[in-house]
Amino acid sequence: MNVFDTELRSFYFNDLKDLSDVKSELIYKKKNFLKNINIKKLKLRNSFLDKKITKALITSLPYNNYNNLIKQDNYFKEFFKNKDKFYCLLSVCFNKKNFKLYEKFLFKNQNLKFYKGIELLYDIHDDVVDISKILSFLKKCQKKNLIIKIWPVHSGKMSKSSPMLRGTINEVFYLISKLKKPVILGGLGCGLINYLFFNKTKQVLNKTYFCTSIPFSLKNLKYLNKEMYKKTFFGSDYPFTGKKNFNDIISEHKKNLPIEEISNIFFNNANHFLKYYKF
Questions:
Q1: Distant-in-sequence, close-in-space partners of 128: CB < 8 Å, separation ≥ 6
Q2: What is the spatial distance between Cα 200 and Cα 19, in angstroms, rounded to a whole number?
Q3: What's the predicted TM-score (pTM) here?
Q4: Distance from C-alpha of 274 to C-alpha of 269, rounded to nearest angstrom
Q5: pLDDT cut 90: percent of the chain above it
Q6: pLDDT band (50, 70, 90) for residue 140
Q7: Cis omega (within 30 of 0) on the bond before 239?
Q8: Ranges 35-44, 153-162, 168-177, most confident
Q9: What 3-state class would DSSP assign to 81?
């Protein structure tokens, strides 16, 4: 079966020292984002990537430390530069301290030639830059033929929303409405049901696709009508998943899907999405 994994992460660090360096950064230390990383699993990433996946969107994490960003960039270019089936996306740190650094880094010619897109993760950022700066950045990304993937804040946070909360449905939909090309939202948009009842949903959903590493439950699937099935992609969440091997991940995602939608969710939808970009 062909598999297009749209939620895959691969890291430069191979030992505990490297991992400690990354964990010590403020964002990840605060969120315990890497506490369950298995170093042995990371060392096996190369064979995993080559043998199990037809195509993939690959990201890492938005490092606070510039040296870690460069290490990650060097690793990506060493391992993925001549592998056409892998599309590397730059995870952008868009807090006020580091955003300009990432923007400058991304738009260097040699980096534009390599990276196929960018990722914004609202959930692990504090002190996010103004929305006008994000929108300007995203418009420039699309002009440069870069895929945009956004992780809104989780729906649990939205339900306790404060006026200052960033990455809400309102903010993300506003950004999408101002862009010309479609956007991918991670984690099923961090709560797919929220998007189905939003004002002007249909207009924005025309430019919105969803990827998920959360196995499809019967509860989630009842919200996926024929149109939404066309806009949903498979993601493994490797190496953060608790599954021991890739076949287990596939089986868990497949078990509740209608048979006629399996090939679409796992490959066809994401492959069709690439038509909007010239790679």
A1: 94, 95, 96, 122, 134, 166, 167
A2: 44
A3: 0.86
A4: 9
A5: 35
A6: very high
A7: yes
A8: 168-177
A9: coil
